[in-house]
Amino acid sequence: MTSTTSTLEPGQHRIKAHSDGAFVPVQTRSERFASTEVADFEAVTGAEAVWKLTPVRKLSALLDGPLDGSAHPLDARTGDGVTIEWVGRDDARIGSAGVPEDRGSANAWSGFEQALAITVAGEGREATVVRSELGTAARAAHTVITAAPQSTGIVILENRGSAVLAENVEIVVGDGAQLTVVSVQDWADDALHLASHFAQIGRDAKLKHVVVSFGGEVVRVNPSGHLTSEGGDVELLGLYFSDAGQHLEQQVYVDHDAPHTRSRVNYKGALQGEGARSVWIGDVLIRQSATGTDSYEQNRNLVLSDGTRADSIPNLEIETGDIAGAGHASATGRFDDEQLFYLQARGISEEEARRLVVKGFLAEIVQQIGAPELEERLLGAIEAELAAAQGA
């Protein structure tokens, strides 16, 4: 690994200059400033590293304005072994998984009044929470998902309708537990959504975290997985389909801070229509304490028309040489001509061949969720996106 330096003004990005000059080390991922208080963050200009690819002017209500932090309408469906309740800001579970690292997340944290607490206990448990009546007032939300030690389950968070929402989602996976969390952004076209997901994975525990984004004008969901106990395992999966004028963003972070931990990051997206935009940033940090780490991250984007833009930036930071393996990959391109030729040579029309290629490309993520009913609905949503694209 090579180290670099950058000339910064004293105090810029909250980094102090050395006494012998204005040169300071480039900030590593683990040193990013964090606080639960929005006042601790400076106003967002769009020049900051974490905001420079985001249309911040559209998000001023969520970054700077007051937010309604009251309990919001939702439809919850649970089985035995899962509890869902509203709790106050003083609940001991709040703050157990992470702390905001940007102004939007901190504004949500400062503004929420009640948090939604979801607890999974036992084996094979499932819960679905649907939000569809948030309206157009700027809101703050906070959710805490806890998987008890040795438990197994899946929690599905579905978002629909209009919204102007900044939120934090905390996920705590107890020792030996196996939890799947799926966040589906099927918002209306005018929705604005900023979300930070923080996960702490216990000893010999596993988290599968899936982000699916179809709807919304600007949707930014940033998940982070912290592997602080030996044997922890995290899979961060993502699927997005960006249409004309739509901005879908995800900044992913995996922090390996214990021996013999494993992570896999796999995000796939398609873009169609003038001004369709996607942003994916993947940060993986393997600390000196994380010997025996096994990590890999990748992002693939399929461009379906002119006028689109996909930013894909994988980053890998390794502080120890004693690892099992680590790597990353990123690719953005158009249809595979060989695949299209193969299908057309077997009597399939070009339009149908393109549909099959895109569906197969994105279905790989859907099929890993492990909830058949949701998988079927998501595949139907992909079909609807493709039909709309072909009809445009």
Automatic annotation (TrEMBL):
Which InterPro entries does the record associate with it? Fe-S_cluster_assembly_SufBD, SUF_FeS_clus_asmbl_SufBD_core, SUF_FeS_clus_asmbl_SufBD_sf, SUF_FeS_clus_asmbl_SufD
Give every SUF system FeS cluster assembly SufBD core domain span: 137-361
Q: Name one GO biological process term.
A: iron-sulfur cluster assembly
Q: Which Pfam families does the entry mention?
A: SUFBD_core
Q: Which NCBIfam families match?
A: sufD
Similarity remark: Belongs to the iron-sulfur cluster assembly SufBD family.
Q: What is this protein called?
A: Fe-S cluster assembly protein SufD
Provide the species name: Arenivirga flava
Which lineage do the record's taxonomy fields give for this organism?
A: Bacteria, Bacillati, Actinomycetota, Actinomycetes, Micrococcales
